[in-house]
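Field notebook, page 142. I keep forgetting to write these up properly, so this time I am using the form the group agreed on. The chain and the ligand, protoporphyrin IX containing FE, are recorded exactly as supplied. Prediction of the bound pose follows.
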Amino acid sequence: MLTLMFLVKSLHIVFVVSWFSGLFYLPRIFVNLAAVPADSTAERERLLGMARRLLRFMSILALLAIAFGLWLWWGFGITGSWLYVKIVLVLALIAYHLSCDVLLDGFVRNRNRRSERWFRIYNEVPLLLLLMIVILVVLKPF
Ligand code: HEM
């Protein structure tokens, strides 16, 4: 039973890490898309293709990370008030993920008005959430 729990926790962490690789890289593509000159359609199409594929892939990774987390919670009964605060932060992470979808749609329709600088700052949000979630789940302060 313990081996299974550790296996599920390992897969939870692997998919969390993979999800974050997308959460860190996709806004970087947005920085490049915001910088593409209006007449470089080939470059724009290439970046849009990369962003679409990455968003699709990282959505699968997000679902797997959450599924294994729920398995740890509901399947093995690991819980505590730290987990409820963690869930709130995870909901913020999911909202960020969905905002990437909306921003990508803005680029696809050529309606983006945000600057490169705006996307560089936007790119830091997942790091802040990662820091808070990992400290919370490892220290379990309450
Ligand atoms: C709905 C989503 C999630 C649920 C229900 C969930 C639930 C859990 C549970 C119950 C554990 C086991 C804790 C323990 O055994 O001490 C765990 C471990 C962990 N979770 Fe999540 N989690 C979720 C999402 C995330 C996310 C998004 C991250 C990353 C930012 C994350 C990072 C971790 C880490 C690093 C561990 C290992 C902690 C340790 O072994 O000390 N989880 N999660």
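OBSERVATIONS:
- Residues 9, 12-13, 16, 65-66, 69-70, 72-73, 78, 83, 87, 90, 93, 130, 133-134, 137-138 surround protoporphyrin IX containing FE (CB under 6 Å).
- The helical segments are 2-35, 41-76, 81-108, 116-122, 125-139.
FOLLOW-UP: compare against the apo run.
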